[in-house]
Amino acid sequence: MDMVDIKIYKKMDYFTIDIDISFEGGILVIQGESGAGKTTLLDCIAGLKSPDMGSISIGDRILYSSEKSINLPVKDRNIGYLFQSYALFPHMSVMDNVLYGLKSRKIKDFSYAEKVLDSFGIHHIKDKLPSNISGGEKQRTALARAIATRPALLLLDEPFSALDRDTKASVYEEFVSFKENFHMDTILITHDEKEAKLLGDRIIHLKDGKVIG
Amino acid sequence: MILKPMLLSLKIASIATIFSLIIGVYLAKVMTKKDFPGKNAAEVLITLPMVLPPSVTGYILLILFGRRGIIGSWLYSMGISLVFSWTGAVMAACIVSLPLMYQSVKASLINVDPVFQKAARTLGASESRIFWTVTLPLAWPGIVSGVALTFARSLGEFGATLMIAGNIPGKTQTIPLAIYFASDSGDMVTANILVGIMTAFSFILIYSLNSWLKKKNFHSIG
């Protein structure tokens, strides 16, 4: 477990994101209403957007530092990102989706990915296209894809918001066992207070780009 | 009288479409990804053959690639001549149909939801890997329509082809040229048959394309 250190300052249209968070291990939940700057925060950590100022580091690896003029490209950050819409590649099978990150990084050993597929219970649908699987299966495939490359940090953007209530209940349980099995430093953002309490080791509240508790 | 122009037209249109596809995809990729000075002018230049009379395009090609042309004289010194040859007809068809390919591919590349590219980026993919494995496959329907339109346009190319390749039966005489010269010389039977074939072929091509695109939930043409 490495210390994750995030200091981000970024001017938005209606407010300024000004955040200073550190955490080590487990799941940090960032809770806030929509439009509080949650997704922008994740995008900055992943490198999809650039802060105006600040620094982002995991252990002694600096991903971004305005002071030292460091801004690692997204592909070199090794951060897993589960998008709210899952963003599963529609023309690739479940298996090809999960292996995409490994092949991009020219990793030939698929044993960990196979283990992930097994433990997520999606091995039997590995040849199916995303359009032919259920919402819960899509969510698990997207999570499997995000962690198959063993990222240093996992970002989850409202990972359960697209699921219906019944599916949600079982997915929560799976998520708790995932957390125990995979021990991955994770930032999860949600607007759902119940979800935050259920899943987070630590919860912070975000409003208009600032931590309010 | 009928078979030769048909085979020649198919050969010229097929090769022109392959060139258009390669050039069109490359140009669309550059124009959607990069900003550079003169980009707007480059965009107009690519699209220009679509609105210029084909005779104007043909004339410009003749000036450039004729035996005494700027590029043509240099090619001629190496033993290559595009004038009055089927390769000249390929070039004319390619340039005249390129805007259709370019517009079609570009529109479909822009339409790909950027979240897929973002996801690929977080998974460690390089920009070129993202283009070939994510963006291009998702833009597939637009590429297929680009190919179909380019092929149909190449098959029907007349003005620029006549200017640069001339009308040499068996060598550069494509279906549209054969129709013009058949009707000019009063051979209405040949003209009627070729007109029927061209019209039926173009109708079937666009009809099948539209049905296919509808199935794929993509915008149909026209």
What is the secondary structure topology, with strand pairs?
The complex is a heterodimer of chains A (213) and B (222).
Chain A: E1 3-11, E2 16-24, E3 27-31, H1 38-46, E4 53-58, E5 61-65, E6 70-71, E7 79-82, H2 94-104, H3 111-119, H4 135-147, E8 153-157, H5 165-182, E9 186-190, H6 193-199, E10 202-207, E11 210-211
Parallel strand pairs in A: 3-9, 3-10, 7-8, 8-9
Antiparallel strand pairs in A: 1-2, 1-4, 4-5, 5-6, 10-11
Chain B: H1 3-33, H2 39-51, H3 54-65, H4 72-77, H5 86-111, H6 114-122, H7 127-138, H8 140-156, H9 159-165, H10 175-184, H11 188-215
Question: What key phrases describe this protein's structure?
Answer:
heterodimer, A: 213 residues, alpha/beta, six-stranded mixed sheet, 11 strands, 27% strand, B: 222 residues, MetI-like fold, 11 helices
Write the element-wise H/E pattern of chain B from the N-terminal end onward. HHHHHHHHHHH
Which word captures the global form of chain A?
A: globular
Q: H/E order of the elements of chain A?
A: EEEHEEEEHHHEHEHEE
Any idea of the CATH class of chain B?
Answer: Mainly Alpha
Give a quick account of the main beta sheet of chain B: strands, pairing sense, barrel closure. Answer: none
Strand order of the largest sheet of chain A: 7-8-9-3-10-11
CATH topology of chain B: MetI-like fold
The structure class of chain B reads: mainly alpha
Number of domains of chain B: 1
Average residue pLDDT of chain B:
91
In percent terms, what proportion of residues of chain B is strand? under 5%
Roughly how many Å is the radius of gyration of chain B? 19 Å
Percent range of helical residues of chain B: over 70%
Please report the number of helical segments of chain A: 6
Shape of chain B: globular
SS elements, strand count of chain B: 0
Oligomer: heterodimer
Q: Specify which chain pair forms the largest interface.
A: A-B, 24 and 18 residues
Uncertain spans of chain A, ≥5 residues at pLDDT below 50?
none
**Proportion of strand residues of chain A:** 25-35%
